[in-house]
Protein: Glutamate [NMDA] receptor subunit 1
Organism: Glossina morsitans morsitans
Amino acid sequence: MMLRSAIVLTILIVFNKVTSFSNNSDDAEKYNVGGVLSDFESEKHFRLTISHLNFDQNYKTSRNMTYYGKTIRMDKNPIKTVFNVCDKLIDKRVYAVVVSHEQTSGDLSPAAVSYTSGFFQIPVIGISSRDAAFSDKNIHVSFLRTVPPYYHQADVWLEMLNHFGYTKVIIIHSSDTDGRAILGRFQTTSQNYYDDIDVRATVELIVEFEPKLESFMQHLDDMKTAQSRVYLLYASTEDAHVIFRDAGNYNMTESGHAWFVTEQALSANNTPDGVLGLQLEHANSDNRHIRDSVYVLASAIKEMMTNETITEPPKNCDDSGVNWESGKRLFHYLKTRNITGETGQVAFDDNGDRIYAGYDVINIRAKQKKLPVGKFYYDSGKATMRLKINDSQLIWPGKQKKKPKGIMIPTHLKVLTIEEKPFVYVRHLTDDEVQCMEDEVSCPLFNTSNGIENDFCCRGYCIDLLKALSQRINFTYNLALSPDGQFGHYILKNSSSSSLPPSPPRKEWTGLIGELVNERADMIVAPLTINPERAEYIEFSKPFKYQGITILEKKPSRSSTLVSFLQPFSNTLWILVMVSVHVVALVLYLLDRFSPFGRFKLSHADSHEEKPLNLSSAVWFAWGVLLNSGIGEGTPRSFSARVLGMVWAGFAMIIVASYTANLAAFLVLERPKTKLSGINDARLRNTMENLTCATVKGSSVDMYFRRQVELSNMYRTMEANNYDTAEQAIEDVKKGKLMAFIWDSSRLEYEASKDCELVTAGELFGRSGYGIGLQKGSPWTDAVTLAILEFHESGFMEALDKAWIFHGNAQQCEQFEKTPNTLGLKNMAGVFILVAAGVAIGVGLIIIEVIYKRHQVKKQKRLDIARHAAGKWRGTIEKRKTIRASLAMQRQYNVGLNSHTGTISYAVDKRRYHRLGGHRGPENAWTGDTDALRSRRCLEDTAKLKHSPKIHAPLPLLNKNRQPINLLPPRYSPGYTSDVSHLVV
């Protein structure tokens, strides 16, 4: 050894002389590397490493490139260390500083070196400091280390838990920076680590204690009530001694328990047998870390010189405004190093912490013997870390060779459910009721806002399943309803700490899932859909019912039951038929009117010539042929019109036959179809369509639409319409407020079977199943799964389907769909209304006709009366003219006989025929009034006067002696004959 040391010193002397000669050259490239080391051996090895580096051309860009080592001794006083760094290192223009620490001095002196060098952006490479505080780049801006921090042991813990299959743990840590850091590292890494693994390690209980504790009994009481029996311990050696002592008094270090501890706790002198701990490889090999740190620095400088120019570092600590930009760039190059050194694969993360560090898995045996049973090492082939443990060599607490289960299985579970027909029916207990009915289970609702408990009773598909499970796998339970009435959805929340790098947002769950994730419940028995988001945080049994997603809508009603008989033809066709009737009638009228061969005599006896077809008869003929009502009079007579009539009859036959066939199809066999064809319907995908669709907020269906990129446009439209519960959405579908409700097929098929007016549209999509929800790592998972599989095989699940989901209504609706309709008043009401309208129109028309006829008769009577009065007036005038003419002739005749005006004949006439000059006019004023009639009338009047003394004749008819005067006219009167010869005197 002495000879070897002498040779090394000789080489160093020769090398220093050579380098001093080279320094005289102007083009020499000098790079000073500082070292703050704990002892003389470390300083000597540092200088020796620098000397070897100068002979290694792989880390030099030119022959003139030379490294120099500048070292100082680590002082226990941090203030003195700061002055030494300024006076002996920074004054020498060092490009980086390698720092270690003494075991007794702690990390105060390395922190002082980091503060001072970081102020001038000079990189610092630690080889022994492992506190979490050095990971904070806000304080230690240019610090990186070739040893991993203590909290990186959480990565190895996760590998070990995965290896042994433990899914539920209790973490015990000190309430200092490193203790909180290891907890955060475990929780953050576990979320990413188990992305593709069905079972994830979850933390059931976190126990945080103050350092330098005297008793751990109080915390052990809480740990004994937990299910997990796997403990992860981070504590100092002194605190671990107290914890192991008290845990032994509680028998928590015996069989059935498993302990995983970090390096410091492994050093306690009372560590129980069977404890598994970690030991960092090369943890105390400062020389190896010195060499790796120097070569990492040389690699970074070489690459930096290749890419850019390095300026000289600060000269002294007096200039507080110095900011070495090349130092920042050099620190960046240092973090990107990945080389194979003497301590293994050397690489760094963004915080400058060592990654790819190897660990030995230590198993504590009797008398504190530490036996390595595995390694956590770097696999160069896969470029990742791997864990290898020899299980056959392990001894567990209680000196057991068999791995403990790591969990205490409870037999009384807290079960949660939610109201979702037909799986769970909920009924509120009335004031008169004390307990639920025989087929019901008490399921109180705990109001989280005011702490009030409301009494409810539950029954249904899932309640029967829960009863069967409890009997089959032997557990008791308390059932309760979801506190917020929801299945649960996640909310993204940021969780960042100043001492840790920023982590991605974490998911916080609400509803049933939140109760299970936060371990406030043991099991969920409800129609809980299995999906990836939920399976990431809770356990699922095998599905007890397979289902998918479908669309519920209300069956489209016919346009109008009153006009059902019009459905066989479209509106356009009906209009064309109506137009055709009147066009054909008009053409028939024109053909029959203007045809030269259309008018002929019916017989030789009848000389009346047949009239042409008028327009009214033509319209009647066209309607009669179309409606097959029979044609009476008013048929076309011309040959051309009759040809058109035959064509029209053929048209009417085809129209009537087509109408009859389609009427049977529409009113007897036709069923209303769904409006939508399924999830791929263009009206659902097109956000511009006026079609409202929705689902339930935060449900599995809502999560499904979030995952599907092709449904993103549709989801954005749905999101504004989503409901809080399925019941509200189904009621709105029935009322027509919501056109499409997207939900689980089991529930919607139940609603459609209960109400035949509802129908599910399209094929199922997003197929999944309903499962029993349990906590991560629950010991009941396998038992529940096996029981459900047995229920499927035995037909129990099918019996539940028939009893609760279908109720026999599905068959009724299906039969109703397949059998033809029976025409009733609802279908044919329009026809009866049409007939009633025809009757009403006919009655209205006859009333109008009667009124019109009466008006015409009155008008005719008035005309006849006026005509008769005019005739009478004309007759009277003519008769008066005749009388006057006769009298004039008589007077002329009398004048001729006697020139005197007062002749005897005139006097006689005046005496005997006094009425001739009266006011009543001549006796022959009425037509046909002959002499005999006048004589008979006068006799009758005389007889009446005799027998009726009370009736007095007018004065002119009586003489003074009241004797009747002879009213009979003379046989020969001058008014009626021209023979007046007997009157001549």
Summary: DSSP finds 28 helices and 31 strands in the chain.
